[in-house]
Design a protein that fits this description.
The structure holds 3 protein chains of 3 kinds. Chain A is built from 11 helices and 14 strands. By secondary structure, chain A is an alpha+beta fold. Chain A has 3 domains: 47 residues, Uridine Diphospho-n-acetylenolpyruvylglucosamine Reductase, domain 2 (2-Layer Sandwich), CATH 3.30.43.10; 112 residues, Uridine Diphospho-n-acetylenolpyruvylglucosamine Reductase, domain 3; 110 residues, Enolase-like, domain 1. In chain A, strands 4-5-10-6-7 form a 5-stranded antiparallel β-sheet. In chain A, strands 11-12-13-14 form a 4-stranded antiparallel β-sheet. In chain A, 57% of the residues are buried. A 5-stranded mixed β-sheet of chain B has the order 2-1-5-3-4, sandwiched between helices. Chain C contains 18 helices and 31 strands. The mean pLDDT of chain C is 97. In chain C, the strands form 8 sheets. Chain C has an 8-stranded mixed β-sheet with strand order 3-5-1-12-9-10-11-20. A 5-stranded mixed β-sheet of chain C has the order 7-15-14-13-8. In chain C, helix 10 runs parallel beside helix 17, helix 13 runs parallel beside helix 14 and helix 16 crosses helix 17. Classes of the chains: A alpha+beta, B alpha+beta, C alpha+beta. Chains A and B meet through helix 2 and helix 6 of A and strand 4 and helix 3 of B.
Chain lengths: 297, 159, 784
Amino acid sequence: MHNPHPGLPEIDYIKPATLEEASRFLASHAGEARPFMGGTDCIVRIRDGVWKTKYLVDVKGLDGTDGIRFEAGKGLTIGAAVPMNKVAAHPDVQKHYPVLVEACHWVASYQLRSRATIVGNICNASPAGDTIGACMLLGGVLRVFGPDGMRDEPLNGFFKGPGKTNLKPGDIATALFLPLPPAGSVGRYIKLGRNRLGDLAIVGVTALGYPDASAASGFRFGIALASVAPVPLRASKAEEILAGKAIDEGVIAEAAQAAMDACTPIDDTRGSARYRKLMVRNLTRSALVDIWTKIRK
Amino acid sequence: MSFHRITLTINHTLYQVDIPGHLTLLQMLREKVGLTGTKNGCASGECGACTVLLNGDAVNSCMVLAAECDGADVVTIEGLAQDGEMDSLQKFIIEEGGVQCGFCTPGILMSARALLNRNPHPTEFEIREAISGNLCRCTGYNRIVAAISKAAQYEHPAA
Amino acid sequence: MAVVEKQKTNNPVGKSVPRNDVLEKVTGTAIYTDDIQFGPGLLHCRVVRSPYPHALIKKIDVSKALKLPGVKGVVTGDDFDEYIGLYLKDRHLFARGKVRFVGEPVAAVAATTEEIAEAAVELVEVEYEELEPVLDPEFGAQPGAPLIHPDLGSYERPNFIFPVAGTNISNHFKIRKGDTEAAWPQCAAIVEHTFRVPHVQHVPIEPHVAVAKMEENGQMTLWASTQSPFAQRALLAKTLHIPESDFRVIAPTIGGGFGCKAGVTMESIPCAVAMKFKGHPIKLRLTREEEFYTNFVRQGLVIHLKVGCDKDGNLLAFENRMYWDGGAYTEYGVNVTRAGGYSSTGPYDIPNVKTDSMCVYTNHPVGGAYRGFGMAELHTGVDQVMDMLAEKIGMDPVEFHKRNCVQGGDVLATGMVIHDVGIKECIDKVAQALDWGVKEPPSSPNKLRGKGIALAWKAPAMPPNAGSSALVKMNADGTVTVSVGGQEIGQGTFTAMAQIAAETLGVPYESVKVSGPIDTRYSPYEWQTVASRLTWSMGNAVRNAALDAKKKVLDMVAEAWNEDPKDLDIKDGYVISYKTEESISIKDIVVYGLPKPNDQGWIGGPVVGAGSFMPTYVTGLDAETGQGDRAVVHYTTGAEGVEIEVDKETGRITILRAACSFDVGKAINPALVKQQMEGGFVQGLSSALFEGMQLVGGVTRNPSFVDYRIATAADVPPEIDTFIVEHAQDDGPFGARGIGEHPLVPSIAAVAAALHDATGLRITNPPFSAEKVYLALLDAGLVE
């Protein structure tokens, strides 16, 4: 039996004035202090005792964490403090990154998304994170301020395990940069929960496809899977199949099967490994068929 | 344990409150300000009973630290009626029979208010989505959905 | 805007008048227990709980906890040796010597803040020695299973509960009617099947909360979110050795109950602590996780069924063997078992019946009352075997149900002759609403589509002599205050009571107020707010009280006017004379009386009507055969149907539309009846599709809303048709009987029948999750 605290245990709330100050505090209180953005993961995990945090360091409002900036020809920068609802409602995001909007839509509930952030979703590295797949497929790069100053962390290779990333004590992710999606790209996020809305993913499939003359098939696809491995998973074998030969229903089925074979889910309260694998196949196939129908035209 | 002095507007009144760092907005409203209309149903952001408007948008107040709210504008269920006149959502949820035990009602009304503020003409499914983070065990939801729909039509009859 | 103020509704019974408790609820000003402010003397309580399903307590060391600043004290089982229990007295306030389920209270801490109390809980050291647990009721009922209550034979019990000493069977209810063995060879078709229904939680949105305070003079006050203030007073007063009149329970607005706030649940804990720290209010709020871990549950059920019919589809024989997973103690479980036993056939007329309904102690959470009180679990099996038998004999299920459902005058399995029931009309209305017999094409090639129907019945499950009382107080301004002891838990009972009082007295509905909160010091007695019994039982008490008040008013005016009271009546708040056509407002006179003719003194005085009601006709049932003249007061019957689609890609079931119809005798307030049908159906739907406690080794693996999903607004069919059928109840107020629980009862079976219609599959262990359905489709070769 794990019986969480009725409220939060005693923690201190720290509001530093600068990124440097925040980073210094976090570095000198490694293991006890965490950067605090939307708080929707922090508060839950501190309350249930999974995180033994003593200090929450509010980084909202620090340099670069606010706002959404779209630069034509370059890409999109989403501040770490920007809640998902703001991202999903932003006209440039809706126009250029519809798959991210779709993914945001599937996170928890509206009022949770008023607080939850894309960057927080990435930093907490839940294998079930709904928006992570879209950010990975879109070539996302985290802007991280650490003890040694600013650096970039590409999302491919960023995740090390459930809740584990390349971030070190003192690191603060300030923003996410998403380059312009490839021309003609179409994406889908399909999520399966136990009930229609609000659940954590039993399986989540993000797929993005676009025309690419350099591929043998004339198209390139990216596929990312949620809740079926210790980290958000790229189905690279499936991606290769779709790039490698002329695409038809059979090839899509083959790719979906490859995605299924690539994942290593576990049994948990939400679903069995067996069901999850089958759902990876079916939902990947659905997503690919949807995208293929649109991009082949 | 550190204390923070914050100044914020709650239901159009300015408050100054001293709170410890671990206190949530929900706890502050209920225990420090005496506004108990906002309900605690799970303390983990899942049931929506504690929904309030924070700077105009619906949030789970159990998922917000009070210390973050310095300078914020908060509207709770007690602030939904204006000048003694009930909000149209309050009137229609009564008329449609969308209230039974009433424990989820404040949170549902705040979620619905935020919805109509950002989307005056929601579809039926948009209404269901907007309140899908508000659990109700009594009503079966359909009368709540109807009430929100009617309030939207009443507020903006054009559509 | 159609919200009307200052309306006057005369003769409100049968009209959908607005509820009288909603203004507070929509403005956030309704006071629930957790909203009451108790000042700086308040102490917070947190509970040390067992981490093991079955273990001996070797040692409890509270010394470290006591040293924590802010800790007032710790109480343990050593402090309280009495037993408590609604039916079978089988538990202590805190575990003594042995723990029997995960989450069982072992000790409680009182401290100045909730945080300190929680920190102190972690400092209480308890040494356990684990024992082999019983985790399956069927296993637990077998000889040789570890004994959970070796003292079962000596527990105090009422005369209608039959524990089997030396076993884990805390109640064994039997029916032996006719001769099933002789009937089987005559059957043209027989279906035999086993169903497993999981534990589910009630999930009121308001968690349990209680505050107790003992005065220096020994008087105790308990503020609690409760359905049962009077039962709590009786049980806790006895257990804590406090005179019942010195024990006061105040029941503020309650944020949903569904049975889990009936009887004594966690309220005993702050009461026990309050006895040690007199003068301090002691508050205990359960976390949502504690709600899941430690609360009463709808107990799990393993049900073995065998049913047979002749070639024309007439039911001939029925055997039902039920193992109820009663959990570690049996607050309500033993009576759920009894109710499941005497109603074990479902609403079907069957000549030969053999039933064994057993409540079995396990090391699972404690079985409680849950909306439907055993009936949803029972019907999940019974209605499915009926659907299977109809299929086997080649008969349409609607025709089969109508051929076999109970009708007025039928002799039930207990020997009781049933009153007039409108269940056939209910079946017709549901079938018609769903276009029964018309096979609709699925919305896409990836979907399968089907329809299903199921029946339900339920009687109020209660002691034979559960009583109600009411007071009707007339006010000088012409309004009326009704005092009752039954709780408004969202079902609208305060509204219905105001309607009954207004109708009976002859005043507008808007003139009647129902006084709350319920307070055992001032409110008249009510057994409990359970069993869908208030409209009927408390309604009778209110009607009797209103009749008493009316008589007093008319007698007074008759004397003043020198008329016969028989010629007088009250209409729209005026006493009128049919003879002289004179009239006078009831204002003022109902308090100040009337001057005698010629001003020689006064007549009357403040008018207070009193009324009570208790069924006097319920008989005992034979322990070996379950036979008796009248097992229950009455049955509410009805039917529900759904049309569903199954997604072949994921297994997900979508409910396209639903229809519910119940015979409520008389709808005092049709809108409220329909709201009960909709809400109850959706709660049932939620348990059909999503809900089940995942108990592994006695530990609940999904103790939060993250992992125990309930239906949200997005899971509900937009169209739920509801139909009221009214075959009057002979002893109901205006013919009414209850409807609070029944709409939940057939939901699972209706979805199961539709699932079979869509896919050909029978899934016998709800919930019908997407995963379960998909894997069944896969295993049956229906998907690749």
